[in-house]
Amino acid sequence: MSRQITWKSWGMLVTLGLVWGSTFLVIEIALRGMTPAWVAAARVIFAALLMTLIWGARGWALFHQRPTRRDAIRLVIVALLSSTIPFTLLAWGQQSVTSAYAGVTMATVIFMVLPLAHFTVPGERMRLRAFVGFLIGFVGVVLLVGGQVFSSTGAEFETLGRLAVLGTAACYAVGSVMMRWLPPVDAIGLASILMIVGAVAILPLAFALDGPPPMPDAKTFVALAALGLIPTAGANFLRVVLIRSAGPTFMGLVNYIVPVISTVLGAWILGETLPSTLLVALAIILVGMAISQWEALTRVVSRLRS
């Protein structure tokens, strides 16, 4: 598959940043009335139901050619790495780590994707300019959260929580790269399969970790439904389209947008104080993104002008 970055790619990237940047707030609300494993399970199950309805309405299209056994195995692995494992790790880890740590850790996804994509995905060669741009953007993310990333919550399982969040980032990185290994495939079908496999796998896991699900109150149910329908089903579809078209490296840029959105929303909705470094950090992040994707940006601008 050839890598194509267009103005639509940038639009999808910004949309994903907006959606996922608000997800942390909704997870916090859901965790007040539901255990971590069941928060993860509920969002995947809601998403799987919605995606299955859409997929069925479109005739159950999936692979554009007869898949091999290796293709099927890769598909299952991508599903586990895209939903079951990271959703569970993140929901559990967020109980004992700061949101600043979670935000910065998610920004490290790109540095895991770069070497993986360089050696395994055609057209995703790791170049010095791109690496420098990503590094500048990462500095902006660290500046945004400041010293909070090193703050301790004092939680009993904080170390394990940090490892869980780091594991989440690793899952997304490996899953994104492996998604590019799949043969030509229908985007709706692929997004649906990821959620269906994830739901089947996460249901017994939730029972094993947290026992039977507690009965959610109305507020928790709305939060769970919102998590399943928007940042899981909808954003998962956009993620599939973006990775398959623009590549996992470009997709990794979303993790620089998410901390900015979550910081602004935290101040707007929760009354948190905006960091004094917000504008400077935002400028650094934008410069880093521009440097890393300079060739793609110039192509998009020239096409728009013509």
From TrEMBL:
This is DMT family transporter. InterPro entries: AA-Vitamin_Transporters (IPR050638), EamA_dom (IPR000620). It is found in: Membrane. It comes from Maritimibacter dapengensis. It is a multi-pass membrane protein. The chain crosses the membrane at residues 12-31, 37-60, 72-93, 99-119, 131-151, 163-182, 189-209, 221-241, 253-271, 277-297. Residues 12-145, 160-291 form the EamA domain. It comes from the Bacteria. Keywords: Membrane, Transmembrane, Transmembrane helix.
